[in-house]
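Inverse folding, one chain.
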């Protein structure tokens, strides 16, 4: 175990956290309910319509029972208990055959069963927020119909402050890890989210968030594109704006109109679950004193994917000696060489002479060779000399063409106005002062 894992995990505060709509808070409340519902496999039951209308005329009574998939009780038993006949259940399963693989349905997936005058009439399976199937005509010949679900997106604004790591900063946001990964990917050429973040760094961004409507309420589906973002680090302030590139594809540019894509990525580690704090980044101080340390150590969980930081050709891969353990070295243009040591394993197919692309996974973090804990040793040589990869200034990205610049700048203004509408004009001090 490396020192990193002994560092106490600090509590993270998302400064002024997140701005949501009231409805979104409703959704959070609902989600909690859902969580509580799981594990309870007794169907809940409610009557949807009074048996008698306001004038006293008897109405058909509609009853609703619902439940969730659970390992404790098979669906078959649940539905029979709810009031379906075994034959009916069989027919329902058959009607859904083309759409649903019941062996793969996860625990927690919910179902509804509607009764008309005490007879089951409609079964609904909520496989996911966008995969909902209604099975009608349960009494005779059940027919399954996929429900048309409308997905709508909203633009949301987030801002936060780093206490230990970007990962931690998102730990209280629903599906926050996926969102943190999106942010890390936008800034992957500028910020090494394993090494660079410092306590007090802060950030803000706009993201498109997809929702579906369910039972008259908004339900979170997923995060789509980051529209713009800013990261206020100690080293620098970075910004990113989404704009189409020449080929009409989504790309990110800084406020000067330079593409964020560069030849070299800031970090060789794919941003995944990072719980270790940056303060533990000096991984091996003793070893460091004993011999020159030609590189940067990244304490990271076993099997964290390791990426080539730039396009290149593999020079060596596999067992690289007692010190390095398993590793990969890659030759790049500009007489640059990168080294990735102590891997648990080299990715299949990565061998000497193989061409690799920037961002391609080449291996997985381990502790082979002279390493006491899981970490990646990342080394960089330029023209045969070791350099500190963190201090390297790489070529800026390509600028947006003169012709497209006005359209880009107007898009930037549009984003900024949107941010201001959520946040009001933000000064750094203001962000720091927020509770
Ligand atoms: Zn090292």
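Residues assigned per position:
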């Amino acid at each position: 175990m490396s020192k990193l894992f002994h560092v106490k995990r600090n509590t993270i505060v998302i400064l002024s956290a997140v701005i949501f709509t009231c409805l979104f808070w409703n959704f959070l409340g609902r989600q909690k309910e859902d969580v509580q519902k799981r594990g309870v496999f007794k169907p809940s039951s409610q009557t949807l319509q009074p048996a008698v209308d306001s004038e006293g005329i008897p109405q058909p009574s509609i009853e609703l029972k619902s439940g969730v998939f659970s390992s404790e009780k098979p669906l078959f038993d649940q539905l029979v208990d709810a009031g379906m006949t075994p034959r009916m259940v069989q027919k329902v399963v058959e009607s859904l055959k083309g759409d649903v693989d019941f062996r793969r349905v996860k625990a927690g997936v919910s179902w509804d069963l509607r009764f008309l005058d005490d007879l089951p009439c409609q079964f609904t399976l909520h496989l996911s927020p966008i995969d909902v199937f209604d099975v009608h005509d349960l009494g005779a010949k059940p027919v399954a119909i996929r429900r048309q679900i409308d997905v709508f997106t909203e633009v949301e604004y987030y801002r936060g402050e780093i206490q230990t790591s970007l990962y931690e900063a998102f730990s209280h946001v629903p599906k926050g890890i996926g969102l943190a990964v999106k942010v890390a990917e936008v800034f992957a050429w500028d910020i090494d989210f394993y090494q660079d973040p410092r306590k007090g760094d802060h950030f803000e961004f706009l993201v498109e968030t997809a929702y579906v409507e369910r039972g008259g309420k908004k339900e979170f589906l997923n995060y789509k594109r980051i529209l713009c973002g800013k990261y206020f680090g100690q080293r620098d302030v970075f910004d990113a704006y989404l704009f189409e590139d020449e080929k009409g594809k989504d790309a990110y540019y800084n406020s000067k109109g330079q593409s964020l894509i560069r030849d070299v990525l800031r970090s060789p580690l794919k941003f995944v679950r990072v719980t270790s704090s940056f303060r533990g980044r000096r991984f091996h101080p003793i070893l460091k004193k004993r011999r020159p340390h030609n590189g940067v150590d990244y304490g990271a969980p076993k099997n964290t994917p390791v990426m080539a930081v730039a396009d290149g050709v593999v020079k060596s891969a596999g067992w690289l000696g007692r010190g390095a353990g398993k590793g990969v070295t890659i030759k790049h243009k500009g007489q640059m060489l990168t080294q990735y040591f102590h891997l648990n394993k080299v990715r299949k197919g990565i061998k000497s002479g193989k061409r690799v692309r920037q961002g391609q996974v080449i291996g997985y973090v381990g502790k082979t060779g002279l390493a006491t804990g899981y970490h990646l040793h990342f080394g960089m040589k330029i023209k045969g000399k070791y350099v500190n990869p963190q201090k390297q200034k790489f070529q800026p990205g390509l600028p947006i063409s003169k012709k497209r610049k006005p359209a880009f700048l107007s898009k930037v203004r549009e984003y900024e106005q949107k941010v201001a509408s959520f946040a009001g004009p933000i000064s750094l001090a203001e962000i720091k002062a927020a509770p």
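The first helix runs from residue 22 to 37. The CA atoms of residues 77 and 86 lie 9 Å apart.
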